[in-house]
Amino acid sequence: MSLFKARDWWSATLGEKEEFDQGCLCVADVDNSGSGQDKIIVGSYMGYLRIFNPHPVKPGDGAQPEDLLLEVQLREPILQVEVGKFVSGTEGLHLAVLHCRKLCVYAVSGTLGNVEHGNQYQIKLMYEHNLQRTACNMTYGPFGGVKGRDLICIQSMDGMLMLFEQESYAFGRFLPGFLLPGPLAYSARTDSFITVSSSQQVESYKYQVLACATDGDERQETEQQKLSSGKRVAVEWVLNIGEQALDICIVSFNHTVSSVFVLGERNFFCLKDNGQIRFMKKLDYSPSCFIPYCSVKEGTINTLIGNHSKMLNVYQDVTLKWATQLPHIPVSVKVANLQDLKGVIVTLSDNGHLQCSYLGTDPSLFQAPKVDSREINYEEFEAEMKELQKIIKEATKTQDVLPKSEKHRDLIVTAEVSPDLDAESQAIDSEVKAETVPSVTVKITIQSRVTAQKPNLAVCVQAPLAVTCDQFVLDDLEPDSSETVVLSVFLKGNFSPSELEGDCVVSYNTPTDLNPEGILKVAQCNFKLPLRLICLPAQPSKAANHKLTIDTNKPPISFLTLFPDFVDPSQDDQANVLGFQFLTGSKTTLLASKTSQRYRIQSDQLEDLWLIAKELTLRLEEHFKKQKCKDFACTFSGSIPLQEYFELIDRHFELRLNAEKFQELLSERAVQFRAIERRLLTRFKDKTPAPLQHLDTLLEGTFREVIALADAAEENQASMFQAFTKLKSATRLVIMLISLWQKLSTDQVAILEATFLPLAEDTQEL
């Protein structure tokens, strides 16, 4: 991911065959030197405690003996090391070391050396607590808002939080619903403990709630105790993150805001201290550790995230700012101030590779070794070049396995729509209640330049439009031959379509030398249907519920010119106003302003405006294209009819809910019907017939209910499809108005259509 490697400032290898994990690394001024320089404290599972103070002469130096301030074996595995104000009576920093069954607090001090070996450091045990339960991890902080000292909270492997007020044990509480321990952190601002449970959810527990709850030292409670006990441990807030967490960090760079950072297995979350997500980042790698630290930009937080690909990524909130390569997989990462160098990245691997590094782009200097110069044999090179070119030529041959892409297509399909409606209508089984349902002839021609085997033609129009025949199986086509198919399109359903377009698709096989069966190919084209197919000229209507005004930058054109198929040339009054009567019964009126460059479309139904508005804009564009006028543009400045659009959405949604309800009721009645059938069958099979007890009446009643429900579901399905078509028309209208309002390009309109019109058909599954 990155060209840059982490620059090695100082590194050390700790012990042999020792193991380390997340809690084994800590950086702090543990000896209270007051210099502001951090020391690096490392504990291992083998029980070794080491404290380093790196002083490299030049960047990249390894560890020198004087860099190791202290190394001591504590006999028991070290699970976690932390530095804080753990001793009463002093605000100095002390070192807390967590073992499996013991918590030890040490004072680290140094004495000035009189000889060249330098200062001497030692640790002194201040106090220790023997634990009744096996520890997992710990956190510390000023629990309950105490000043000048830190308290310690240890989480056991069986889900008990054990709290210690420095030298004394305070209390223990079991977490509710516990299964496995997760990371634990303390938020000083809200005085609460935050962990991630086995239910894959972040949980927050107030310190005051834990302190006031019933004592949890005994896990087994009787039923009587449960009923008579005091307050139980209650969670403050819960957030389901859907994955296990690796670590939790709580940062507060000012007193007003604190953030809870949770590193999951695949995501990185930042939460507010009330449990709401501030932001999250999906990671495309497997993380191993992380640390948030303050950012130079106000209001943002930087985070270092290490992963199992030996990478260290730097994020500013969710933006990746830098990526750097490490020599090992980090299990823990910290940011420290070492030897007047602020912001040193300290990483530790599971096998004990400790490295202090910085981010930079200084290149690794590499010089290519000199090669012995020898005379070039040009004839030998030329022969080798010819051989290689021959191999390349053989490899790039298609050998007719794949079809060659040619400029001229093998098969071309074209569709020609008749300019006039059919003299005798070809409409079959139309549900439209008009006197005559017109049809229009579409002539489809297939021209083939090659041999086309098994050509199949499919013609598709959007319902409620229909074709007289939609599938054609044709004979094989010889090279340079053609086939013509004629069909008619008409309005079948008793409602208006959302578009007046159709598609033709031809699938065919072209044989090759290696594949006589042929390679399947597809050719397609689309065609536009006339407006006369679904509406007739009518008297204009003055009153209407829905009105749209479209502005243009050219004087209005007479409707005699724009709509010659809808107006009577002898009637001059139709030059500025025109009525359209849809076959389904609704009416739309189109008006052109005599004084301004505007057109108004009005109708009682919102969805009926769409086809007329689209036809108007298309015919205006075609008219000015013929006039060779390039600067013509339509605009829309009115308010988009969103309220009416939302009503159509609600209606469609209501019908979808009805469909689900009918499906459930049908399922229930069918189960009831089968149960009654089984009972009757058992009675009829019985050798000694028992009375039917009105089971036959119940069967007949249930059968009638099933039939009635099926009829109602079918009727609802038809209504839902009508609502779906109306919704599509209204959606297309809204998209067109937005595009005219914002002057969107064709590509931008295509994005809007892909977003708002993803469905070609309406089913319960989609």
Automatic annotation (TrEMBL):
Pfam families to which the protein is assigned, alphabetical: PHTB1_N (PF14727), PTHB1_GAE (PF14728), PTHB1_hp (PF23338), PTHB1_pf (PF23337)
Protein name: PTHB1 protein
Chaperone among keywords: no
Segments forming domain PTHB1 hairpin: 639-742
Listed InterPro entries: PHTB1_GAE_dom (IPR028074), PHTB1_N_dom (IPR028073), PTHB1 (IPR026511), PTHB1_hp_dom (IPR055363), PTHB1_pf_dom (IPR055362)
Record organism: Eurystomus gularis
GO biological process: cilium assembly
GO terms under cellular component: BBSome; membrane
Keyword flag Acetylation: no
Start and end residues of each PTHB1 GAE domain: 435-527
Domain PTHB1 N-terminal: from-to ranges: 1-363
Record-annotated PTHB1 platform domain positions: 530-637
Encoding gene, per UniProt annotation: Bbs9
Coiled coil: 371-398
Superkingdom, taxonomy of origin: Eukaryota
Annotated keywords: Coiled coil
